[in-house]
Amino acid sequence: MSLEELRGLIIRHARDDDTTLIDGVLLSVAPVAAPPSAHPSGTCLALIAQGAKRIVLGDRAFDYREGQYLVASVDLPVTGQFVEASRDRPAVGFGLTLRPAVIAELLLDHADALAPRDDRGAPLGLTVSDASDELIDAAIRMVRLLERPRDRPVLAPMIEREILWLLINSDQGAAVRQLGLADSSLSHVSRVARWIRDHYAERLRVEDLARMSRLSTSAFHRSFRAVTTMTPIQFQKQIRLHQARLLLATRSDDVTRIGLAVGYDSVSQFSREYRRLFGVPPSEDAARMRGAE
């Protein structure tokens, strides 16, 4: 089993929208190193079979390349791009959505087989590791199922559990295990992060978020920053600016209207912070994106 076989399978079966006939399995092929794009990370495993990718969260960059994988254990506002890709050697990736319910079931059914670990701290929401031969082998067998429709409904859930089990017992196991535990530090932070994403235009108070997380204000602030690399206010700002960029690309509203729609009271502050994150003023970025469309 090798990355070469995985690359060939992904190139054969990848679609333009990255989806597949197996729920939760994503395949991507990028023939060019495109500019960075802002998007939510989701909770997922992302394994690079060829090329390299960079994910930026707040002021931290996470680089991973062929033979390595990234785990996103919280849905975070990130900016990502393939940094090594060409038509002769495209970037190729395998993805799997991490479902907390399946992880929780594994933890409950096989608690006796887990090595004792200290999972009390809040792990970082993005982590990168080298892929084991076993993980690459499982990914290959999962993609092969796209050619075996009769076996797919039975074997795909089994291979999904195998991949999750390998992650649970890997260097990144703490983040994956906490994703499946309803009362873990990661789950508390994830709950609040989802609330901020759903209410990004509203004013927020850290004390209210701490109550929502069932943690003290100081413990919540510490855990939130450990997981997301940002304070709750900085996290909300990232969500607002990512949403503003989506609106600028898809709506004809002017910059002022969109700045107000995502929660800014000051258009000048909106333009300043937008430029700081994306490198260009919102009006210029909107014209570029619409021109590309």
TrEMBL record:
MF GO annotations: DNA-binding transcription factor activity; sequence-specific DNA binding
Domain (HTH araC/xylS-type) ranges: 190-288
Keywords assigned: DNA-binding, Transcription, Transcription regulation
Signal peptide stretch: none
Keyword Transcription carried by entry: yes
Matching InterPro entries: Homeodomain-like_sf, HTH_AraC, HTH_AraC-typ_CS, Tscrpt_reg_HTH_AraC_N
Pfam families named among the record's database cross-references: AraC_N (PF06719), HTH_18 (PF12833)
Name of protein: AraC-type DNA-binding protein
Species per Swiss-Prot/TrEMBL record: Glycomyces harbinensis
